[in-house]
Amino acid sequence: MDGTETRQRRAGELGLRYTLSTGRLPRASEDGPLSVPESQRVSPKPLGTELSRETALSIGLQGKKLRGFSCELTRSPCGVFPETAFTLTCQITVPLLLSGLGMMTAGLLMNTIQHWPVFMEVKDLLTLVPPLVGLKGNLEMTLASRLSTAANTGQMDDPREQHGVISSNLALIQVQATVVGFLAPLAALLLGALSTGELDFEKVKLLCASSVITAFLAAFALGMLMVCIVIGARKLGVNPDNIATPIAASLGDLITLSILAFFSSFFYKHKALGPAPYHPGSCLPPPIFNSMGDSQSSYSRYLTPLVCIGLMALTPVWVLIARKNPPIVKILKFGWFPIILAMVISSFGGLILNKTISKEQYKGMAIFTPIICGVGGNLVAIQTSRISTYLHMWSTPGVLPLWMKKFWPNPCSTFCTSEINSMSARVLLFLVIPGHLIFLYVIYLVEGHLVPNSKTFVVFYLLAGLIQVTILLYLAEVMVRLTWHQALDPDNHCIPYLTGLGDLLGTGLLALCFLISWLLSEAELDGILEPASGPP
Q: Is-contact 185 208, C-beta < 8 A?
């Protein structure tokens, strides 16, 4: 099936009144060269009131015969907007800077809460941070990408259809958040047990309750935000693919970390308020019982299990709502593997964070981790969402366009051609260095004493950010082609993997930057001290 046939069918599916092929008839025919008198030439006119300012058709007539025509698509009624590199840069820059502000705030918050008693005692909470914060990539960015594709393909133009799409998608992410929120602490505990050889059941309950309620509330808040952003962008004539995912990240890290810190501290204090176990013959007084015969710690003992059971009990309700939309049913059945695998990948990034954050040579790691992971995740989610929308508009699942037939394209074709997705990849890559420089400057202004201030660190940090985003953008191109060829939706299957890889790459490269910077500073210090301590 060639590209023309595919585009013609998609135009019908998207509800266009007319299925038009752009082109011109030959300039010459049996009647001689085409020469259309001015009186018989039809000037460009919009086709119908519904397509006003969208499609212009020019027709050339000779006598009663059609001799030529041209059709220019200036704007699709379903929301495919012509974009230049300048337009794309303008639309992405402001949301990216706003997301950077949110990520910097999250980094400063994380640098503060790492010293709280609950985080000092329950070290596995730090391992839990990247998977939970990564839910914005696994769930909210995936939701934003799905809604953006639905808006751009006209599925949200009808109010009743819009309500069905929104309610089923919100119910889906509640199911996913509850399940992943329950599995994430188990992965963190397993990794912690493998590294330390210890497992405390009380910590298991605290981690599970904190994780489930954090994932549930963060998914609900960010899901509602994504719906408002996509609908608002559609009404304002802005491509939601360019702004939805950065704005999701702008508040995602901060909201998730705040909820996790609040509830984990609440459960920890509730647990600490209960009396210590009473042993006969000890010098401690027996526990005090209330009028009902319950000890003071009864409610504390059952609080965390009740939170987990209560939120898990709501899962069937969300499933019933989500099943009203057939595409969502397919995700409910087959969309778990990408999310769970992405959570496991992010957990390894959390393990790196857990092992490095308290060491002196990694001072400032807590501040920079949300930033480098968030920037990489934002940019690759934008690119993945754009390629997915492009394929939904101009092809059908299982059929790649002729110019995208290669599963493993040359990296030069990903970044250096005139094709629309290559142009967007260049723009996104161009934003990495300026974005990180702005974030670094603000961090040095606010908390300069908490982070390395050497030029060596800055150079290695910028290089790490550039390497991370370059790898992710190329993998996005490859993974979208592979999933589309398998008739899978890239919105659901690519973004979780890529944001999980972004967390792992970002955390690992950041730790390497701190280590190299510290080693070089130590070597420089030794070189200064050795001559001073030598013989006169």
A: yes
- In whole angstroms, give the CA distance from residue 116 to residue 375: 27
- More confident: 408 or 510: 510
119, 126 in Cβ contact below 8 A? yes
Q: What is the pLDDT of residues 183-198, one digit of tens each?
A: 888 877 777 777 666 6
DSSP class of 33: E
> Alpha-carbon distance 501 to 246, whole Å?
17
DSSP code per residue over 309-329: HHHHHTHHHHHHHHTTSHHHH
Under 8 Å between Cβ of 211 and 179: no
Q: What DSSP assignment string belongs to 237-265?
A: T--HHHHHHHHHHHHHHHHHHHHHHHHHH
d(CA 448, CA 410): 42
Distance, in Å, from the CA atom of 415 to the CA atom of 422, rounded to the nearest integer, reads 5
Full strand arrangement of the beta sheet holding 41-46: 41-46, 55-62, 65-73
- Any idea of the CA torsion for 522, 523, 528, 531, to the nearest 10 degrees? 130
Q: Report residue 419: phi and psi, to 5°.
A: -65, 150
Where do the H-state alpha helices sit in 134-239? 135, 141-152, 159-196, 201-236
**Identity of the residue numbered 533:** S
- Compute the distance between CA of residue 259 and CA of residue 282 in angstroms, rounded to an integer: 39
Task: Answer yes or no: is pLDDT of 226 > 80.
Answer: yes
Cβ neighbors of 169 (< 8 A, separation 6 or more) are 143, 146, 147, 223, 322, 325, 328
Burial class (CB in 10 A: 0-12, 13-18, 19+), 166: buried
Q: Is the pTM of this model over 0.90?
A: no
User: What amino acid occupies position 394?
Assistant: W
* Separation between Cα atoms, residue 528 and residue 364, nearest integer Å: 25
